[in-house]
Write a structure and sequence with these properties.
With 575 residues, this protein is an alpha+beta fold. The chain folds into three domains: 318 residues, no CATH class; 123 residues, no CATH class; 99 residues, no CATH class. It has 27 helices and 19 strands.
């Protein structure tokens, strides 16, 4: 007997979305984002990481060193996956109709590139549908981009052409958030999840700040290093509206007037992120800027003493030699070693006309770092950057440099928000999994995010089955599409032949497409997957699923199929 109450009809869409967890659902129901973090924190799978030899000496490490250790573990065990075929396709019309009671079409189009969103000028240059491989479908077809639980991420290792686990950006960000808390002992109040229409990442309040970006990390120093990898990591915050910010105190959403995040927590995040994305103009920063903005390199040259004689090199040649070299133009300690590697024929014996000497700027900036808002010093710097007397080009360099050293991310506005919510999720580093489960269980009646966490974790022994069934029957198109050429008997045989092995422990259940994608499932999971595919081909069929302690019986009209089950669940469901 289920000891938790039935979910009210007006909440069923949200609670069923905690099962399917598509990017679209998280935008409409932002509570789901942290619900998945908590589901991963509750997962026994992530607690087993603490026993891994890779983390054996973690307690003796400082916080950032712990985070680096975690990063390498995630890189080794998970790939980034954005395959359109993984979780199947839907249509714009069906999704808009589904979310109409909660958000209008205009608001939905702000959330997703496939609904019309293109972001700032960066994205206007992209054909979004071609970029995501959707140009082969009708314009109304969009993918079910679903966020994976830790168990589903791990299960990719069973899928053809995958070496290890995998997940998309929201999956990786929620995995990182849970692991930072459990493995690295980072307090939940210092982990902020940031969602934009095309990306999801985390800001960790450690040292000067750390950003997770898919599997990798970005520190403040890395943010300003001018490399292609960093430019890609910056893309979301530079070009997109931040739609959701969430931590253990709640969320703030660009669309909704109500916010549940603690105002002082959000303000602390805003100030920390602003400091992270702002730096002074030093020679190293100027050289990093020129590495990223190669169009300005033609304004500069670098002086080098070879055998006591001055030689001059177009700066773009020096940057070209950086590739594959440990030495950098921006590093005073290694710059000469880089220049030693360059063929003497690339140098000029006289200063190159119309180019400023980078060395002179180095001397000027050595003891005079400049803030972008210091008008007098910026004016002085502008006078020294004289590129063939071209004022327009000079101002382009200065404007580009200011943009490089100071980014103000477009966060949700607070002016017209009403703040209030159920309060923070107060679980502390060092707590055991059992203590965390007890604490979250005690919050369920009063804290919707805590309650949603149990649905995201798929524990059918502690949740109403209706959301799981709704998500399973409505949002699992892959098994239906992949089996449509099979006869009814072949369909039954295909699911009966799958190994009786669940990707989830205990009384937690996989959805039909997880069973099919990873080709394994407990008998109860396979029975439900068969029911889903059967109903799609026989809409009028009466289907009865009987879950027993050690078996699952599926009645399909006049036939009955029995599967062995180890889930220990008892319930009768009519589909």
């Amino acid at each position: 007997m289920n000891r938790y109450p039935e979910i009210p009809e007006d909440q069923l869409e949200k609670y069923s979305s905690a099962i399917s967890l598509s990017d679209m659902e998280i935008f409409v129901f932002p509570e789901l984002l942290y619900g998945l973090v908590l589901a991963n924190i509750m997962s026994p799978r992530i607690w087993k990481w603490k026993e891994h030899e890779w983390f054996a000496k973690l307690d003796a490490m400082k916080p950032y060193k712990k985070i680096q250790r975690l990063k390498q573990f995630i890189i080794d065990h998970y790939e980034f996956n954005l395959d359109l075929d993984t979780w199947g396709l839907t249509t714009k019309e069906s999704e808009i109709e589904r979310f109409k009671p909660f958000m209008d079409e205009k608001m939905i189009s702000q959330s997703n590139a496939l609904f019309g969103y293109e972001g700032d000028k960066h994205y206007f240059s992209l054909d979004i549908r071609k970029h995501f491989g959707l140009d082969k479908y009708n314009s109304n077809i969009i993918p079910f981009w679903k966020t994976e639980t830790l168990e589903a991420m791990d299960a990719f290792s069973h899928k053809e052409n995958y070496r290890v686990g995998a997940g998309e950006c929201v999956s990786l960000s929620t995995l990182y958030a849970a692991a930072l808390f459990i493995i690295c002992d980072i307090p939940l109040e210092d982990i902020f999840l940031i969602a934009t229409p095309l990306h999801s990442q985390n800001f960790i309040n450690v040292n000067d700040g750390v950003l997770t970006n898919n599997r990798r990390l970005v520190t403040k120093n890395m943010w300003f290093n001018g490399t292609d990898l960093t430019a890609r990591a910056q893309r979301a915050l530079r070009h997109e509206q931040v739609t959701i910010v969430v931590n253990n105190t709640g969320y703030i959403h660009t669309v909704y007037d109500e916010a549940t995040i603690a105002p002082d927590s959000f303000e602390r995040f805003r100030k920390k992120l602003d400091a992270f994305t702002t730096t002074e103009i030093t020679f190293e920063i100027l050289a990093n800027f020129l590495r990223e903005r190669s169009e300005f390199q033609k304004c500069f040259q670098i002086k080098y003493l070879r055998h006591g004689k001055e030689q001059y090199l177009p700066i773009e040649r020096a940057y070209a030699y950086e590739h594959g070299s440990p030495y950098k133009v921006s590093d005073n300690a290694t710059r000469d070693k880089l220049l030693e590697q360059i063929d003497e024929y690339d140098f000029y014996t006289e200063p190159i006309e119309g180019r400023i000497q980078l060395n002179k700027l180095s001397d000027y900036l050595k003891n005079n770092p400049i803030s972008h808002f210091d008008e007098d010093n910026m004016r002085g710097l502008a006078e020294k950057i004289d590129c063939t007397g071209d004022m327009e080009r000079k101002m382009s360099v200065i404007e580009g440099l200011v943009d490089f050293v100071h980014l103000e991310p477009e966060l949700p506005e607070t002016a017209n928000k009403t703040f209030g919510g159920p309060g923070p999720i107060n679980i502390q580093p060092g707590a055991t999994r059992e203590e965390i489960l007890d604490h979250l269980s005690g919050l369920r009646a009063t804290h919707v995010i805590a309650d949603l966490a149990f649905y995201a974790s798929r524990d059918l022994s502690t949740t109403d089955w209706a959301p799981f069934i709704k998500a399973g029957m409505e949002r699992n198109p892959v098994i239906i599409a992949d089996t449509k050429t099979l006869s009814d008997d072949e369909l039954v045989e295909a699911l009966a032949g799958i190994p009786n092995e669940s990707i989830y422990d205990g009384a937690r259940l996989a959805q039909p497409d997880e069973v099919w994608n990873f080709q394994r499932g407990d008998g109860l999971e396979r029975a439900f997957a068969l029911a889903n595919a059967w109903k799609a081909r026989h809409p009028e069929a009466a289907i009865e699923l009987l879950a027993g302690e050690d078996e699952a019986r599926l009645k399909l009209g006049g036939r009955e199929i029995v599967f062995e089950s180890r889930k220990g669940l008892s319930k009768t469901v009519h589909l």
